[in-house]
Amino acid sequence: MNYKSTLLDEDAIRRSLIRISHEIIEKNKGIEDIVLIGIKRRGYPLANRLAENIKKFEGIDLSVGSVDITLYRDDLTYASDTPRLNDKNLGVDVRNKKVILVDDVLYTGRTVRAAIEAIINVGRPKCIQLAVLIDRGHRELPIRADYVGKNIPTSKEEIIAVQIVEYDEEDSVKIYET
Fold first, then answer.
1. Helix (H, G, I), strand (E, B) or coil at 168
2. Most CB atoms closer than 10 Å: which of 88, 113, 133, 146?
3. Distances from the Cα of 22 to the Cαs of 113, 136, 146, in angstroms?
4. With a threshold of 0.85, does the pTM exceed it?
C-alpha cells in the first residue's frame, strides 16, 4: 500500500462527530427513545464518543451497545446454511427504540445490511438510522447514511484507513493506493 494523504486529523474527526451529534438531536427532535449501536470494531468507540457529545449538549446519558456482524456477513463462507449469532446481547434494548447504527466507513453497504439483520433478529426497533464517519461510495446495496462525517469519493483501488485512539493510538483517516 502506498500512502496518499491524511484526509482527517484528530481535530477534524472531533468536529465531524460533534456535528453528527447535533444532527442526531435535530433530526430526532431531541433524544427520546434513542439508543446508539456501534458496529464492532471501530463503530463502537465512535458511538461512545457520540453519546459523550450528546450528554454535553442535552445532559442525558444515551445507552450505547455494539453489534458483531461476523456471522451475518453475506460475503463470507459458512459451515452452515443458517448462521447463528453467538452473543445476542447488544448491550441495549432495541425494542420500540430509535436505533442509531454507527460505523467508521460506509463502502458497499454489506456490513450495514448485516448489522441491521442482526439488530432486527434481537428486537424490533421503531426505526434504524445510520451514522458513519466516512462515506466512500461504491454501494452494492440500496443503503445510505443519515449522518456523514465526510464524503470521500474513492476508486476501488484506494483504501481508507480509519485509526482511532482506542485501538490505534491516534485519530486519523488516511487514504492509500494498492
1. helix
2. 133
3. 25, 22, 13
4. yes
Which range has the worst mean pLDDT, 45-49, 68-72, 164-168, 173-177? Answer: 68-72
Dihedral (CA of 107, 43, 161, 26) sign:
positive
Q: What is the DSSP string of 10-70?
A: HHHHHHHHHHHHHHHHHHTTS-TTEEEEEETTTHHHHHHHHHHHHHHHHS-PPEEEEE--G
Helix 43-58 to helix 10-27 angle (10° resolution) is 60
Residue 69's pLDDT band (cuts 50, 70, 90): confident
Domain ranges of the chain: 10-156
Of 146, 102, 144, 99, the closest CA to residue 123 belongs to 99
Pick from 74, 76, 77, 150: nearest CA to 113: 74
Residues 6+ apart with CB under 8 A from 129: 24, 27, 98, 99, 100, 101, 146, 147
Give the residue-averaged pLDDT of 85-107.
87
Task: Identify residue 107 by its one-letter amino acid code.
Answer: Y
- Was domain 10-156 assigned CATH 3.40.50.2020? yes
On the 0-12 / 13-18 / 19+ scale of CB atoms within 10 A, 28 is middle
